[in-house]
Amino acid sequence: MSDDTLIHTEGDFDLPMSRRAFLAGAALGGVGLLTGAHETAAWMAGRQPADVKGIGVPAGLVRLAFNENPLGASPKAIAAVLERQTWMNRYDYTTTLQKAIIKYHGLDIPNVSGFDFKATGERHGILLGVGTTELLQLLALEALMGKGEAVEALPAYGQITRVGDELREAGYPVLTRQVAVKPDGTHDLDAMQALITDRTGLVIVNNPHNPTGAINPYADVLRFIDNVPSRVLVVIDEVYIHFVRDPAYKDFIDIAKERENVLVLRTFSKAYGLGGLRVGYAVGHRNVVRRLAPFSMGLLGRNTLSVYAAAAALEDAEHVRRSQQTVWSGNDYLTGELKKMGVSVVPSHANFVWVDCKRRTRDIVRALSAKNVLIRGGEGAWESPNHIRVSTGSPEENEAFIHALQQVLA
Description:
Oligomer: single chain
Number of strands: 14
CATH architecture of the largest domain: 3-Layer(aba) Sandwich
Low-confidence stretches: 1-44
Helix content: 25-40%
């Protein structure tokens, strides 16, 4: 994380609330976030950060730095946790989450063990993770320790490169190669392919991409997969897939079901609103899953409440729909207002926007933080000193950010 990511330390909360009141409040909050554009604009004119009360953060803090869901968690997930809130003293040895994922994606995995963090059939496999960050960690370790090299974009979430840097500092002869994204924010797939060597064990495509929000067309990514040597694992990171605005776009789950060198990553942190519970999973060939399993935390990484929350969230299509609409309308608002300020914004298929301010943004990020508005700056590991990444918030959070940015730029 770069020096420009300024994080406020939050205090403890003691909010006693009944299950019924909690769920009712969550439902009303979702309805409020989807009011008409004209009503919202009139209601929020001149919104100040001090006027904002986001879900899950202290009043007055506009936290648009971590790509979180402004609607909060899926109401079905909340209900599942509240029904089992006294179960925290027990380890989870059920097959609840594995079976939910298998059913959701139509995977051929008939037998699942409650004592295992993975599930494999004759061909398909899934692997649970403490968020997708753990999955990226073990992917990097397996590829770099086994082959020696990996390739990813620049800028990127960067976990593969971070692991490579740590291994090199520890004396391991590994190399992570980074390829600059194109001006439109998409992966330069041809350049990435050109860097593949006999030592390459992993290539990762984050689609939609973090931090640019851009997306490579399905056909282009499929062509890339076809051209990559079968010995190289191609990871398609789809943590933002729910926010793709092109209705014709297809995900890569079906490809991962058929190819022995393709793995797809998914998370419950974004559209489902479970970032604080840290649940992710991978879908791919059984042999890939078994190869990765020794690097995983296994049973130690499974949280009882997370399991039931995630399984319930998979069935909450309405919450996903509301999350999509909130993000899409928020992206339109942010893009329009930012362009009025003379900056460039990449069309986003994620729950954030990538902004070229055409000047160094370090001071902008710090000035906004002083106003209790948190965003990410592009300096540091992203090597994009003129950029900022702004997570899409609720209408009031978006308005407060724009108002604060106008003050800072003035």
